[in-house]
């Protein structure tokens, strides 16, 4: 297969971790006989520095022309005081909108080798294997009107949370379809006791659930869901929720695995006319400017994003399994970066170890 992939390293540690992700892609292409066509673009602070814009039309066109996009991280303190239109994060929102990716999928697992790395007790996290499905293009982050008005002590800020039937219906169907391939359970997270948007959310999810009678559905208010993620994380299968709530609880779930640096994600849209599924893949963490350039950033979230890319966008399940097995192996025997039980490895050495395992396993299989 020919894999056309756009790489957007972004800011901070994004440059270092995407480098390791690319190494893994090259190893997979070599081991399994695929043709890899890589291109690179700018986003976030890097794009602002070079062009004055957080993302350019040329980059957006390249993203839509690619089969998939691998992104590092966005954000730099240099632009902390910039207006919203000139902030690095505007590039991230822009590419999501341009690609039409409306669903963010975040797998969360508890690895036996890292039980001690989590601040939670082993008895709580053991067996955890969930998928958080976050709606990505609606809600407070995109609603209007929005802004800050007035002056001095009379200033006030406002945002608009809005959801349509169509926005809820399409991601609810994706959640139920994914649950069919897992353990047949969907937990929908909302705030229907307070928010009208959540009341519509719950009503639509219940309606769509009727088409999936084999999938169990339950509902949790977001505050209770946040507590249950800590009390009984292994009870969850697929968590379905809106944009803001998903942003928060998926980061909370990072404590289960022991480090936010481990968690991959993929943002998916509707199939294109050619049948391909547009996908934007990235680790869930930020640009971590405090450790950028030190060679200690954990690349496994990015490498895990490569694994789900191979599966979700290309249907290469064997290749995705090989990458995930290599991640599991490295977590078990090392090296690991300092965020994991004070590991002594570097970004590069962890990436090299994953590559070596993929190549070694492919030779054994042959």
In spatial order, strands of the major sheet run 2-1-3-12-11-4-5-10-8-9
Question: What structural category arises from helix and sheet content?
Answer: alpha/beta
Number of helical regions: 13
Low-confidence stretches: none
- How does the major sheet shape up? 10 strands, mixed
CATH domain class of the largest domain: Alpha Beta
Defining traits:
Isopropylmalate Dehydrogenase, globular, single chain, alpha/beta, 42% helix, 366 residues
Short description:
Helices cover 42% and strands 19% of the residues. It is of the alpha/beta class and 366 residues long.
Question: Could you walk me through the main structural features you see in this protein, from its secondary elements to its overall organization?
Answer:
This protein has helices at residues 14-32, 45-51, 57-65, 88-99, 122-125, 165-180, 196-209, 222-231, 243-252, 254-257, 300-312, 317-333, 347-365; strands at residues 2-10, 35-40, 68-73, 101-109, 129-135, 147-149, 156-158, 185-190, 216-221, 238-241, 264-269, 279-283. 42% of the residues lie in helices and 19% in strands. It has 366 residues and is α/β, with parallel strands linked by helices. The strands form 2 sheets. It has a 10-stranded mixed sheet with strand order 2-1-3-12-11-4-5-10-8-9, sandwiched between helices. The longest helix has 19 residues, at 14-32. β6 and β7 (156-158) form a beta hairpin. The model has no long low-confidence stretch (mean pLDDT 94).
Layout of secondary structure:
Blueprint (H helix, E strand, L loop, with lengths): L1 E9 L3 H19 L2 E6 L4 H7 L5 H9 L2 E6 L14 H12 L1 E9 L12 H4 L3 E7 L11 E3 L6 E3 L6 H16 L4 E6 L5 H14 L6 E6 H10 L6 E4 L1 H10 L1 H4 L6 E6 L9 E5 L16 H13 L4 H17 L13 H19 L1
Helix pairs in contact: 1-11, 1-13, 6-7, 11-12, 12-13
């Amino acid at each position: 297969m020919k894999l056309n992939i756009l790489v957007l390293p972004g800011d901070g540690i994004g440059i270092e971790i995407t480098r390791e992700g690319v190494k893994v892609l090259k190893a997979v292409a070599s081991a399994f006989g695929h043709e890899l066509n890589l291109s690179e673009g700018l986003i976030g602070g890097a794009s602002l520095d070079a062009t004055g814009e957080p993302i350019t039309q040329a980059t957006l066109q390249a993203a839509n022309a690619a089969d998939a996009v691998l992104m590092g991280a966005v954000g730099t303190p240099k632009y902390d005081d910039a207006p919203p239109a000139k902030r690095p994060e505007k590039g991230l929102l822009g590419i999501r909108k341009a690609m039409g990716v409306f669903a963010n999928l975040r797998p969360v697992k508890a690895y036996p080798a890292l039980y001690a790395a989590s601040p939670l007790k082993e008895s709580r996290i053991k067996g955890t294997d969930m998928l958080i499905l976050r709606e990505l293009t609606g809600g407070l982050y995109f609603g209007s009107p929005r802004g800050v008005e007035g002056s001095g002590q009379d200033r006030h800020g406002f945002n608009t949370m809005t959801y349509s039937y169509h926005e809820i219906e399409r991601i609810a169907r994706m959640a139920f379809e994914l649950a069919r391939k897992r353990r047949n359970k969907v937990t929908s997270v909302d705030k229907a006791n307070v928010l009208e948007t959540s009341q519509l959310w719950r009503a639509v999810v219940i309606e769509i659930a009727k088409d999936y009678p084999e999938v169990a559905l339950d509902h949790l208010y977001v505050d209770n869901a946040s507590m249950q993620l800590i009390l009984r994380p292994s009870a969850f299968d697929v968590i379905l929720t809106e944009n803001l709530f998903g942003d928060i609880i998926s980061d909370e779930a990072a404590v289960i695995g022991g480090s936010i640096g481990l968690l991959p994600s993929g943002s998916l849209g509707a199939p294109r006319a050619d049948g391909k599924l547009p996908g934007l893949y990235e680790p869930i963490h930020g640009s971590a400017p405090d450790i950028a350039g030190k060679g200690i950033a954990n690349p496994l979230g990015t490498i895990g994003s490569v694994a789900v890319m191979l599966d979700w966008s290309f249907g290469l399940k064997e290749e995705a399994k090989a990458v995930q097995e290599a991640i599991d192996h490295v977590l078990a025997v090392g090296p690991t970066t300092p965020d994991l039980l004070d590991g002594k490895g570097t970004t590069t050495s962890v990436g090299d170890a994953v590559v070596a395992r993929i190549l070694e396993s492919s030779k054994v299989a042959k």
